[in-house]
């Protein structure tokens, strides 16, 4: 076996997927969970999770993010990033 010979390596390798934790976030939210929005246009607003989405948000309309549709107690439905809910 040569030192640079990759023949002894497996043909496929599974790499671990690590989610970078830049901001602490609640995970596994589901429809009906109560949340409070932290930061952005609706900072401090309280509402209910309607769905999990991957789309543009209210605060950054030119970028796509993983987030939630939240029905606020004051009426509107907003799209917020995962890191914005507590």
* Secondary-structure element order, N to C: EEEE
- Give, in spatial order, the strands making up the sheet with the most strands: 1-2-3-4
Helix content: under 10%
User: Looking at the structure, what is the overall shape?
Assistant: elongated
Please report the number of helical segments.
0
Give the percentage of residues in beta strands: 25-35%
Q: Termini, distance in Å? A: 55 Å
Backbone CA Rg = 20 Å
Helix/strand/pairing category: mainly beta
Kindly report the average pLDDT value. Answer: 78
Major sheet description: 4 strands, antiparallel
**Low-pLDDT segments, ≥5 res:** 21-25
Number of strands: 4
What's the topology here?
Elements: E1 34-36, E2 46-56, E3 64-72, E4 77-81
Antiparallel strand pairs: 1-2, 2-3, 3-4
Salient structural properties:
86 residues; mainly beta; 4-stranded antiparallel beta sheet; 0% helix
In words, what does this structure look like?
The protein has strands at residues 34-36, 46-56, 64-72, 77-81. By secondary structure, the chain is mostly beta strands. It has a four-stranded antiparallel beta sheet, with no helix packed on it. A hairpin with a 7-residue loop joins strand 2 and strand 3. Residues 21-25 have low confidence and may be disordered.
